[in-house]
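User: quick one, sequence for these tokens?
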């Protein structure tokens, strides 16, 4: 989704930093880009373009960038108004004195626009953002910071903004409410970004802004205060993990690279967290005593997309392994339906990015209702991680491809360890705990086994790549895997795919089956397999081609199909992980065969920061 970068520092460095920062944010998904630079004589120069950052870069080549010490830049993912140069950020005030980039949605923009228009302001875009520079101008009486303060106090909705003022070429102001802003400190320069990925090659010392805070930034100084002018002392955080996009290496796409990284990323997620001797897991970030854990009487997971699927699987684990009633909710539904949360409810927000607006809203709702909130996030220092106060990091490394792969498998591994810990805290004995611990330790090598099947999976995917509709069916722990497999396919191939509980198929969806609708049947050797074989027969009776996932050299599906994907034998708890890795490969090769843009699929954003 939209990305912000800002720079204030040495001569000539502003434009190259901003363009590089935008490229580092490309993975988030966008449809236009723009940059504003201010020079020492108080002139703001703005360049915008539709499409990729490289187009913006080409346009910038013709401009004179010396004497430009400060600038702001943006990648826009269209919400209010189509992708166009007029709608691209930065947006300027009527006099051109102020330039603003904005992430989030201003919910009262039409009311503000009406009011400003009556006062003589002229608008040139369809965006909600454009009211911000106009509002700042309206409040301006020579004091830049006071004007920004006055303006943001009028906004409702969400914003992360960076602002330039032609009268203050050595100052940049940023503020946030609901959209992340991080400030990078680089000695002779200071920077702003909506995502630390843009900064990390320049500095690892950062300040995170909290909601309703702003920062007044010069090349040598950063002053943080609330938007009500209360001074704030903020500790510098050091980024110790690798967030850089290392490049694709020998892989054609980031998605394929990230699929292949899973033995290592899951290895990192479980490293040091399994105590084989005790048959237990150690999750220090959870920060709960055994007594506090024993008092948890319900678990509610709140998440979106792939993280929701991981959470659904987590509920199977918590009920089956830990013996704790558990449910999962799409985060926005959780937030808006006034959920019942008791003091001993553990709420688990799950988010790769840690910035998903709906999940963040759910965190705030849960905190407000007095729940114990523990986030499962990948991005260290993200808003959800910080506001939850406790949690478990994935250590999956940066995930660049929009379609989540390694974050999903790490989320599931973390949920399995959490279920083990809570189970051992209750009725699970040492022997069962040791068996499950050993099974968790095997996950990286089991994934490695699946990756060896890539050529077979590629051939099967190519064979079916003309299909326009697919069903994915699974039972028990494999039902969330069916949902995740279907999501992967639709995200990157734009082909309609639905995940279903295998038993539900005959209650309606079976009406859609015919020889043109393949069914991906998850028929691993776990409880429910016999019933699954019956469901496969039902699909074949409607002439649907079947693509079966089975355990090892199991021949159970041979009578129905020759398209068989084999995953190694494992417990029912680990089978969804190996199966999803196979389905990720299937989706990848299917989309590749159709010539789709895999890493940045149309309409999608890596981090969905609007509700
Ligand atoms: O960063 P999050 O895990 O909170 O993101 C949630 C979803 O937006 C995300 O999982 C989305 O569904 C992915 N594109 C899945 O591949």
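Assistant:
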């Amino acid at each position: 989704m939209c990305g912000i970068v800002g720079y204030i520092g040495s001569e000539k460095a502003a434009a190259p930093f901003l363009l590089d920062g935008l490229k580092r944010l490309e993975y988030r998904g966008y449809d236009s880009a723009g940059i504003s630079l201010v020079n020492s004589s108080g002139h703001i120069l703005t360049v915008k373009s539709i499409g990729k950052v490289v187009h913006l870069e080409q346009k910038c080549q013709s401009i004179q960038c010396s004497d430009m010490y400060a600038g702001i830049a943006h990648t826009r993912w269209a919400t209010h108004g189509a992708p166009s140069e007029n709608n691209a950020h930065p947006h300027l005030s009527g006099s051109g004195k102020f330039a603003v980039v904005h992430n989030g949605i201003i919910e009262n923009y039409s009311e503000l626009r009406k009011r400003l228009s009556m006062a003589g302001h002229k608008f040139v875009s369809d965006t909600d953002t454009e009211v911000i520079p106009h509002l700042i101008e309206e409040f301006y009486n020579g004091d830049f910071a006071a004007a920004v303060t006055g303006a943001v106090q009028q906004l409702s909705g969400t914003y992360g903004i960076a602002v330039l003022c032609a009268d203050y070429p050595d100052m940049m102001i940023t503020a946030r409410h609901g959209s992340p802003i991080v400030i990078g400190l680089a000695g002779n320069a200071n920077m702003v970004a909506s995502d630390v990925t843009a900064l990390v090659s320049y500095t690892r010392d950062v300040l995170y802004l909290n909601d309703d805070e702003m920062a007044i930034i010069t090349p040598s100084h950063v002053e943080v205060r609330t938007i009500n002018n209360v001074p704030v002392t903020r500790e510098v955080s050091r980024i110790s993990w690798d967030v850089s996009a290392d490049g694709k290496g020998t892989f054609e796409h980031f998605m394929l690279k990230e699929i292949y990284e899973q033995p290592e990323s899951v290895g990192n997620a479980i490293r040091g967290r399994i105590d084989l001797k005790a048959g237990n897991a150690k999750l220090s970030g959870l920060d709960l005593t055994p007594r506090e854990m024993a008092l948890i009487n319900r678990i509610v997971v709140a998440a979106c997309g792939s993280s929701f699927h991981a959470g659904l699987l987590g509920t199977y684990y918590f009920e089956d392994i830990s013996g704790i009633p558990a449910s999962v909710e799409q985060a926005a539904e959780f937030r808006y339906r006034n959920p019942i949360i008791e003091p001993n409810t553990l709420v688990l927000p799950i988010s790769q990015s840690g910035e998903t607006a709906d999940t963040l809203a759910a965190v705030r709702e849960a905190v407000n209702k007095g729940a114990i909130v523990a986030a499962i996030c990948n991005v260290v220092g993200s808003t959800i991680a910080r506001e939850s106060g406790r949690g478990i990091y994935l250590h999956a490394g940066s995930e660049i491809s929009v379609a989540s792969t390694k974050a999903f498998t790490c989320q599931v591994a973390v949920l399995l360890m959490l279920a083990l810990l809570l189970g051992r805290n209750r009725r699970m004995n040492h022997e069962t705990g040791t068996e499950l611990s050993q099974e968790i330790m095997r996950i990286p090598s089991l994934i490695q086994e699946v990756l060896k099947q890539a050529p077979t999976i590629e051939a099967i995917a190519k064979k079916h790549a003309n299909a326009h509709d697919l069903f994915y069916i699974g039972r028990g722990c494999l039902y969330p895997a069916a949902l995740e497999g279907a999501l992967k396919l639709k995200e990157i191939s734009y082909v309609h795919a639905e995940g279903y509980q295998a038993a539900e198929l005959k209650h309606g969806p079976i009406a859609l089956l015919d020889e043109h609708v393949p069914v991906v049947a998850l028929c691993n050797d776990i409880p429910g397999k016999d019933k699954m074989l019956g469901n496969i027969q039902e699909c074949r009776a409607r002439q649907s081609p079947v693509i079966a996932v089975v355990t090892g050299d199991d021949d159970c599906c041979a009578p129905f199909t020759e398209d068989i994907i084999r995953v190694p034998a494992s417990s029912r708890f680990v089978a969804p992980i190996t199966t999803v890795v196979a389905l990720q490969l299937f989706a990848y090769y299917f989309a590749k065969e159709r010539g789709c843009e895999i890493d940045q699929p149309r309409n999608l954003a890596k981090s969905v920061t609007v509700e």
